[in-house]
Amino acid sequence: MCPPDHFGIEYEINPWMSIQQGSDPERAAGQWRALERTLEDLGVAIDLMTPEKGLPDLVFTANAGLVYRDTFIASRFRFGVRQGETPHFEAWGRARGFEVLTPPEGMNFEGAGDALFCGETLFAGYRFRSDVRSHHWVGERLGVEVLPMELVDPRYYHLDTCFCPLEAGVAVYYPGAFDDYGRAVIRGRIPTLIEVRAEEAQSFSCNAVVVGRTVVLNQGAPALAADLQRLGYATRTLELSEFIKSGGSAKCLTLRVDGEEAAAWKAAGSAASP
Amino acid sequence: MASREKSSEARAAGSGEEIEVRGHIVDSLLLPKILDRILQMGGTFEIRECRIGVQRSDPSYARIGIRADTPEAVAEIIGDLVEHGASPVHPEDVRTVPADVAAAFPENFYSTTNQRTQVRVKGRWIDVEDQEMDCGVALDAAAGRARCIPMVHVELGMPIVVGHAGVRVLPEERSRETSLFGFMSSNVSSEKPKAVSLQGVADSIRATRADGKKVLLVGGPAIVHTGSAPHVARLIREGWIQTLFAGNALATHDIEQSLYGTSLGVSIAKGEAIEHGHEHHLRAINAIRRLGGIRAAVDQGVVTSGIMYECVKQGVDFVLAGSIRDDGPLPDVVTDVLVAQDRMRASVRDVGFALCIATALHSIATGNLLPAWVKVVCVDINPATVTKLADRGSFQTIGIVTDVEPFLRSLAAELTAGGAETGPGA
């Protein structure tokens, strides 16, 4: 995680951001600390990035890159305003002992924002931020199956805003963010699915952090919480409204460095644990 | 019925291209999606090759022929499919039309970038020569050659490339780790480590010379005002600069310094205005005009030091381009901007590295002429100058925001023999 010391809305690169509306630094700091405390309470060890002035979105560490075993594929951001984050994330990866790879010039790839393992397969979002070519490149480099799915609603510009794997074969998703093909891929490949309603998707409920069998998510999704509980998951709800103004919530504020719960390679016990 | 036959005939006779798509295109449904989109957009397809991965992690591959009524329709379909990971193969030959007006391109001309470009002629890809942004491409089909041509040089009847078909751009693959041009390429900042930047510039200059390419210096008058002229003179004397682009001002102030020890009337040694010093620059210009030019002034022993002196002595190719506010100007100044552009164009051909120092307009003018693979370092106290250059398409530019005097002093110390002899103020 990266503390929100320099977080703010300094530009508009998604439909949630409004420079005029801005965000409240004190409230943001409080909400971020509450997330940190919740994760610590769940037994998570947290590694902190150093915040950098002028990089307000560095707090969204899910976009740092993609972790796979001891490899870290650093992001290549689509928008110039975020491109300055890459060297910090690369340096972080190197300092933690990862083999750091960067997609070639001309590709756009926004890390765990757009590429999420569910089982053996990497589910990948494209169109608004990452592109298909970069997902193919990642798949080739890692030797894993990659399924690119087109995102069609600009409010759900990253895959992690509308799709959340819980464990191999189980995921939460908001169908309205995908086209027919994308929906068919998810339905065809993930046997247990929780569909999120439009009004609850808007509260960024898919942007959740999964720790063991606990799901940490933003408040405002009671139906989803009930569905999760029926499947045997505990939920922790937080208020992350200041970050939603920037188009991110719990998941965006974290990068799981030992593999997401749903990633098959994590279960195989070969985590990098740097 | 007749019209349907006509349209299917037209389609058969219409325009076609091939695309290829690879990756996990079967399970991700990208392949069916691409085929559906071709039909939705009014095209037809033919799968010409398809290899399906054996295991789940194996990628698959498909080569697909696409046809539609018009080249525009095909281009539109391909433009859409590229978003879904497809890339065109076997495009058509490039199309040209003869220029119908001299000094202007035909409608729908292909407008160049500064990136390496190729055109397809009789099924073969040939490199476009003299790569330069914001030009057209003139084709000599008989000789099998294509070159960038500025608008003003178009002659009546010259075959000019139109449309995008048969043109491909090969972006520079830049390594991220190996040099200054790797890790410095983030953004313009005054907070970069200067010693590392300087070392990177010095290494690039050495590498350029080792490659047998020329180093170009594009300089503004601030080089002289800040007392950096001796550093530049030393770099030229020791063979580190082969080409100089500047305006009347740099040359004038440099010569004024040689003749009077002042720059715009201010003593370089003392930093004070000299009495009647404001006349010096005009007197300097007048002296050179009376002798006929800078070379004559050096040959006759009138100018005995400075940047322009070293240029003449070392045979450095210099282009001084005029501006509306020039005093004089010096007889060497090219006052017709189009002629100056052409002189610069000819002089950048073998340049492998360009160092732009403290001049916005000359830097941008030079950036416009350079292909993207020529490294450009722009040094200026004002970050906006550096940003401007990058914003105008010279994205390969590395910006260093710093005072030019310490930069040039350190660069000269790094590159030249008398490294320790750093002059006053060191």
From TrEMBL, chain B:
Residues 201-411 form the Arginine dihydrolase ArgZ/ArgE-like C-terminal second subdomain domain. InterPro entries: ArgZ/ArgE-like, ArgZ/ArgE-like_C_1st, ArgZ/ArgE-like_C_2nd, LOR/SDH_bifunc_enz_cons_dom. Residues 17-114 form the LOR/SDH bifunctional enzyme conserved domain. Residues 116-196 form the Arginine dihydrolase ArgZ/ArgE-like C-terminal first subdomain domain. Keywords: Lyase, NAD, Nucleotide-binding. Its cofactor is NAD(+). It is an enzyme of class 4 (lyase). Its EC number is 4.3.1.12. It holds the Pfam family ArgZ-like_C_2nd. This is ornithine cyclodeaminase.
